[in-house]
Write a structure and sequence with these properties.
By secondary structure, this protein is an alpha+beta fold. Helices cover 49% and strands 10% of the residues. The longest helix has 22 residues.
């Protein structure tokens, strides 16, 4: 077996081939990583993200463009708010961290804000680790790391992540800071947006824990993160402490389930390339050579969701109806199988899923016949009872 450094170099070369000649890699951010962890069985997303493929450009080339991304106005507003929060050496941000997370500590005054600039993501990652180690060895004061660079191993390949900030408390513990431009109204924000921020912060916490594990003594990485948002309808910052223990546990478990990227790459045919510059037919063949695990939740998390949904519908896969439905249907993997089982045309009657489908079809048929009818056979009743399934399959 070749040494790890040789294997890593060969993998990087292979991923560059998959990306296409002279195509720069798209960085894997925490938002994409959280989405990947939410669907660990999707080899397609794992290899595309691992290779740094621009999935938005790929989706456009496949004829199924995504509607992802923020408007320029939203980006400008978010950047302006973040600059306001971090002004004056992060005085307001540290005040909020003290108020919401660490009231027993001395109020922040004269906090350290180390320079984290370095060439390349690897250099910035090492500089961040050094700054954290220095802060851990300097107890009693506050330290603010502005846009540190963290690394997290994802399916055998490093992902470089950049949180908005990390605060080192006087006791040496570390807190992730998420700065968002959505408002906090009367002290509460949109639960869906808070949940997305929590999942993103959980990825940063996992990366920080890897750095902390290499230090002696091991600093504590706090599992309550600081979420900073505009207060009500103003541009004044306010904050909330968000417990991300559940999100951290789920993300760690799901990332551990990801198939290693080199295993997926080794299983691909020779000459496969995901460059958006390729002809549509060849590009479609390349994408379809990697199995996908589509679910309706992908529509809010993956740029390729529309393409994968269309292919899943063409195959009649029951996953298009959602994971709960798929789990209830057992060995029935296509809509055709489900409809045939409900009509009594196929399926093992002793199978609980088949029996439930036939019973549901019979009950619906009986209800549609009205109170003056008798009998509940599975002939025409079964056919009528499949109407709901057929309607659901078309949605």
């Amino acid at each position: 077996m070749p040494p790890p450094r040789t294997r890593g170099k060969a993998l990087r070369h292979r991923l560059a081939e998959l990306r296409g000649p002279d195509v720069p890699a798209k960085a894997l951010d925490a938002r994409a990583l959280a989405a990947l962890a939410a669907n660990p069985g999707c080899a397609r997303r794992a290899i595309l993200d691992g290779a740094g493929v621009d999935k938005a450009a790929l989706a456009g080339a496949l004829g199924a463009p995504s509607a992802f991304g923020q408007s320029q106005f939203a980006l400008t507003r978010g950047n302006a708010f973040e600059a306001k929060v971090k002004a004056d050496g992060g005085a307001e941000l540290l005040r909020l961290a003290h108020e919401k997370l660490d009231r027993s500590a001395e109020p922040p005054a004269g906090a350290q804000v180390p320079d984290l600039s370095a060439p390349g993501p690897q250099g910035r990652t090492e500089r961040t680790a050094l700054a954290l180690r220095e802060a851990a060895g300097r107890p009693g004061g506050w330290t603010l790391l502005d846009h540190p660079m963290l690394a997290l191993d994802v399916a055998g390949a490093p992902a470089f992540l950049e949180p908005d900030a990390v605060v080192v408390h006087p006791d040496g513990s570390w807190t992730v800071v998420e700065i968002k431009s959505f408002p906090m109204l009367d002290g509460a924000a949109d639960p869906a947006k808070v949940g997305a921020a929590a999942r993103q912060a959980a990825v940063y916490v996992l990366a920080l824990e890897e750095i902390a594990a290499r230090l002696d003594p091991v600093p504590r990485v706090r599992h309550r993160v600081l979420l900073v948002c505009p207060k009500d309808f103003s541009n004044l910052p306010t904050a909330s402490a968000v417990d991300i223990r559940k999100q951290r546990a789920v993300t760690a478990r799901q990332l551990a389930r990801l198939t290693r990227i080199e295993e997926i790459a080794d299983a691909l045919p020779e000459g496969v390339c995901f460059s958006p510059e390729l002809p549509a037919e060849r590009l479609t063949q390349a994408v379809e050579s990697v199995p996908a695990t589509y679910a309706p939740e992908c529509l809010s998390a993956c740029e390729l969701a529309f393409h994968c949904r269309a292919r899943s519908r063409e195959r009649g896969a029951v996953t298009t109806l959602g994971r709960p439905v798929r789990a209830e249907l057992g060995g029935l993997t296509t809509v055709g199988d489900v409809l045939a089982a409900a009509r009594g045309e196929a399926g093992d009657p002793s199978d609980p899923a088949v029996a439930a489908l036939r019973r549901a079809a019979a009950l619906r048929a009986e209800a549609l016949r009205g109170p003056g009818s008798t009998g509940s056979g599975t002939g025409s009743g079964g056919t009528a009872g499949t109407a709901a399934l057929e309607e659901a399959a078309c949605r």
